[in-house]
Amino acid sequence: MKILICDDESTILNGLNQLIKNGKFNFKEILLAEDGLEAIEQIKKHKPEIIITDINMPKLNGLEMIESILDIVPKSKIIILSGYSDFSYAQKAIDYGVFSYQLKPIQISELYNIIQNAINIYISNYADNENIDPIEYIRKNYQNPNLSLNELSHLTHLSISSLSKIIKHKTTMNFSDFLNSLRIQYAKELLSNNINLNILEVSIQSGYTSQHYFSRVFKNYTGFSPIEYRNKN
């Protein structure tokens, strides 16, 4: 899948680009545009499935851009990040069928959740779900805090019982253990290589919504608390 980010402030544009790279969403391409006209050209050429855009931009604002691209990529999921809480903007966005309208600044974990949900719904609605490998899907999406057997069942059209058997057969672990093993391995890498991240940030980036729960699971799997593990490394 491809994602396009459109914002006329280079600091925000580059920041979002880096955040999405760090999020490990496995996008084939991350496309960047500094205004609505440039975004339209990129969309015509690359047909991104996910679009993140500001509203207030020169040349062509976000809402005008969305109106222009609806015929080009009608299935794409559009996420608006705006500094304006004006109800008329939000109402217009709803009329256009945007996936999400969010105000700046936005929490990293919330942004990741919104992007992942947009991906999941796009896949659910438009992709060839019968060809989804549940093991590979878990490996690519373990940072999504909402990842569950129910979601996998919906995406693959397999029963929860069947999925559980497949996961156990291929990994020798149940779903929960397999998911936690991926998350804890990633958390270990973050703790060792990203000393500027605090424990809450590590837990969020690893797919946990609760720092307390993350710390408990981490000690279960490693024998150390996250702080102890960081200090010994």
Concise description?
The chain has 2 domains: 2-121, 3-Layer(aba) Sandwich (Rossmann fold); 133-233, Arc Repressor Mutant, subunit A, CATH 1.10.10. It is built from 12 helices and 5 strands.
**CATH topology description of the largest domain:** Rossmann fold
Total beta strand runs:
5
Q: Which CATH first-tier class of the largest domain would you pick?
A: Alpha Beta
What percent of residues adopt helix (DSSP H or I)? 55-70%
The tally of structural domains comes to 2
Radius of gyration, in angstroms, nearest whole number? 19 Å
Just name the CATH architecture of the largest domain: 3-Layer(aba) Sandwich
Question: Separation of termini?
Answer: 36 Å
Profile the largest sheet.
5 strands, parallel
- Our estimate of the beta-strand percent is 5-15%
Spatial order of the strands forming the largest sheet: 2-1-3-4-5
CATH superfamily of the largest domain: Response regulator
Helix and strand content put the structural class at alpha/beta
Q: Layout of SSEs?
A:
Elements: E1 2-6, H1 10-22, E2 29-33, H2 36-46, E3 50-53, H3 62-69, E4 77-82, H4 87-96, E5 100-103, H5 108-126, H6 134-141, H7 149-156, H8 160-171, H9 175-193, H10 199-205, H11 211-222, H12 226-232
Parallel strand pairs: 1-2, 1-3, 3-4, 4-5
Helix pairs in contact: 2-3
Describe it for me?
- With 233 residues, the protein is an alpha/beta fold.
- The chain has two domains: 2-121, Response regulator (Rossmann fold); 133-233, Arc Repressor Mutant, subunit A (Orthogonal Bundle), CATH 1.10.10.
- It is built from twelve helices and five strands.
- A five-stranded parallel β-sheet has the order 2-1-3-4-5, with helices on both faces.
- Strand 1, helix 1 and strand 2 form a beta-alpha-beta unit.
- The chain starts with a strand and ends with a helix.
